[in-house]
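Thread title: Can someone regenerate the structure for this chain?

I was given the following input by a collaborator and told the matching structure tokens would be attached. They weren't. Posting the sequence so someone can regenerate them.
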Amino acid sequence: MRYKLKLPVIFRWNDGTEHTEGGFTSEVALDSTMIHSSNCPPVGCHVRVEVLIPSPVPSGEEVRVECLGKVIRVIEQPGYNSFVVHGIFNDEDLMRQAQEVP
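Best answer:
Regenerated them for you:
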């Protein structure tokens, strides 16, 4: 199941040089995500993605859900670039925080 969600992300990859970029998700699934960003890692590159989920309460901390995956598609169009990462999200932090909510 895929969800259309616009969440901020930080992603990192190494192609001989360390890169750190940011962007926004457009679709999220348990095993993949599509990210819009001005800079995209190349197809076949391994990437670490951190999706930032805002807290539902004003004073709460954001939750970071991490995915280690591989870029399987890059889409370059006038005005935006996107890429798709295939990998499993580690939702342990998300589940732990959900259990802590009173």
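The mean pLDDT is 86.
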